[in-house]
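The protein record reproduced below.
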Amino acid sequence: NFLTTVAGDTSSNLVVSPLSAQVALAMAAYGAGGKTATQMRKSLLLPEDNQLGQSGYKSLIERLNGVKEVELRIANKIYPAKQFVIKSAYKELTARKFLSRCEELDFHNSEAAARTINSWCEQQTNNRIKDVIARGSLHPNTALVLVNAAYFKGSWAKRFDPSLTADRPFHVNDKISKIVPTMFLKHTFRFGHLPEVNARFIELPYRGNELSMVIILPKEVNGLKAVRDNLHKVNLAARLKRTGPSHVELSLPKFKIETTLNLEQSLKILGMTDMFQDGADFSGIADSGLKISKVVQKTFIEVNEEGSEAAAATVIVAMPISLDAQPPPPERFIVDRPVYYAIYHRDLEVTLFNGFLHQPSVS
């Protein structure tokens, strides 16, 4: 529900990282108590057994950081104010289970603190995520900043030939079309139909075959809304597992998207309201009263003939409370209308990045 809640009724291009948001919020949730913890744990689907959940996050981060033949990095960091005392048990928890490091900052010099955090995010995302902490986001009374960064760069298992890229029409809706650079590839892919959302899907693996891009193409030009509204009905992981390879002629636009989101309203819709209020309980982090003042995510994706590059940073700012036979004819999968897409870990069934492409742009 994260993507559809964030997207709302927008018809703009969108990329988010549910994984980055989940990890950052889970770090905060394991320091929460009372009603704050109840809401966060329910919304994030955290298991009742803390040891099970925390070890699960550690295994997930280690597994993703160990993916072969592509670049994939998941990193966490905590920035407490110099005068703010974090409980040693929380520091140990985030270090051991979330592989997070801790660096004290002087938030009285808010511009210098912002530069430090932004510099770390840039380093972790190969300079793709810049200025995730905007001017004025930090204040002298900022107590704590939690940051998760996710970065992916992978080459297609079967690359597109750039000489076959050509300008082709893309139907933004049933009235507006534009000409966009569109790649072409004839190859064998997992491909199938999703009658529950009146759409088709295709899976494009990256080198190493651990990660792939999944695209859901509505059968109707204006069909993306129906896909978005009913995406929860689709068990894509199960469908992919029981789908065999097909010969496909694929046409896919090149595109680049960058999105900056203030997630407060979306998280409240998802049930996490208490953490933003003066009565928030983060007693597992510190004895001093804390509430979340800001949750921001900045995300980037680029898709071209070589492969895909995607990056995200999620920042939580806490403030003190105040076959041999003749093959059949190839299927044609022409991405010439708005689609859903996701970068997905095949074995873990984890979505790293996903979004909606309404209007391809490479600028």
In short: The first strand starts at residue 14 and ends at 16.
